[in-house]
Amino acid sequence: MADFTPTPADRFTFGLWTVGNTGRDPFGEATRPVRKAPYLVEKLAALGAYGVNLHDNDLVPIDATAAQRDALVREFQQALSDHGLVVPMATTNLFSDPAFKDGAFTSADARVRAYALQKTMHAMDLGAELGADTYVLWGGREGTEVDAGGKLLDALGWFRDSLNYLAAYSESQGYGYRFALEPKPNEPRADIFLPTVGSALGFIATLDRPELFGLNPEFAHETMAGLSFPHAVAQAIDAGKLFHIDLNDQKMGRFDQDLRFGAENPKGAFFLVKLLEESGYAGPKHFDAHALRTEDEAGVWAFARGCMRTYLILRDKVQRFGQDAEIQAALAAYRVQDAELEALTGTFTPANAGALKAHAFDRAALGTRGPGLEALDQLTMELLLGVR
Ligand code: GLT
Ligand code: MN
Ligand code: MN
């Protein structure tokens, strides 16, 4: 049996903010000490990760001087090169500082919108310096509690203008970033703009350079919206827009839990891994999750190892699914082919349409056929539960 030990070839990444999470929540203080970035790099590399991602302020405090910034960046770069980790993705913290309390790119205050752009351009410079080629935009504060401010349409326009501006900045600097929008329905705002993968896909089509923008969908966020994550990811892949992915887990209807990958819904995680592996997704697999607040440092590394191990175990299950004769027979039986009808429906021609309109269907037979999904699903469960 494989030992499910990750290697950099598996392209697993974590954010500095994930393994560095101190356990603070709205009701309680930190339960773990702050760890410095070079230490987190060393520990992640030892576990077999490929890379580490960051917000500007995960590394450089918001009020750091230029000299302090440069020293922190140098120390971080040294740790990356010492331990062989890369930084594939960077992003901006546009949610912690009180200046962003009513939004960043969608603030009703033009000064805040301008500051958000300034801060993001500096953070893009930092990401480029570290070698990142993907730039994530999570609009955590881009939303409202009160719609009496009347900014719903304006906010979408301000958001669009900001994204167009940042894409033009990236191109003018030669950074070549691919921007990945990360939707979330709520928390910390009551209603966040562009709340789902579908909304973000629709919005991207309205940008000046839509080809530079894609998605960074997160398991927890679509689940919070009551939606299926594999379905959302499939739509992003179909649109050629799966630029990055945030893997974690979540109980529906709760606060954003950011649980260890597969911890809550291993069956959903299995279908997600199947989709990623079979679609040829080649980007990093980023775990945007953190250890439970109950945990000490040993729990943090158990959490990180567990995320990667579960992915690899599920990847192995995907292979077994593909090799399981009974499952493959059930799948083949599920998909009914009909060469004559598929010829008529493949392309519209007046002749095809005429023949299709004249075709006599046995509707009763179509309605009575059992597709075998109960048996197929049980076979899948038994595979996942380890008895086949
Ligand atoms: C924050 C959020 C995540 C986003 C990160 C990127 S920050 O932790 O909960 O879902 O991916 O800004
Ligand atoms: Mn989350
Ligand atoms: Mn995320």
Automatic annotation (TrEMBL):
It is found in: Cytoplasm. Mg(2+) 1 binds at residues 182, 218, 246, 288. Keywords: Carbohydrate metabolism, Cytoplasm, Isomerase, Magnesium, Metal-binding, Xylose metabolism. Pfam families: AP_endonuc_2. Mg(2+) 2 binds at residues 218, 221, 256, 258. Residues 41-290 form the Xylose isomerase-like TIM barrel domain. GO terms for molecular function: magnesium ion binding; xylose isomerase activity. One of its GO terms (biological process) is D-xylose metabolic process. It catalyses: alpha-D-xylose = alpha-D-xylulofuranose. GO terms for cellular component: cytoplasm. It is an enzyme of class 5 (isomerase). Binds 2 magnesium ions per subunit. It comes from the Bacteria. Its EC number is 5.3.1.5. The active site is at 55, 58. Its cofactor is Mg(2+). Homotetramer. Belongs to the xylose isomerase family. This is Xylose isomerase. It comes from Deinococcus soli. The lineage of its organism: Bacteria, Thermotogati, Deinococcota, Deinococci, Deinococcales. The gene is xylA.
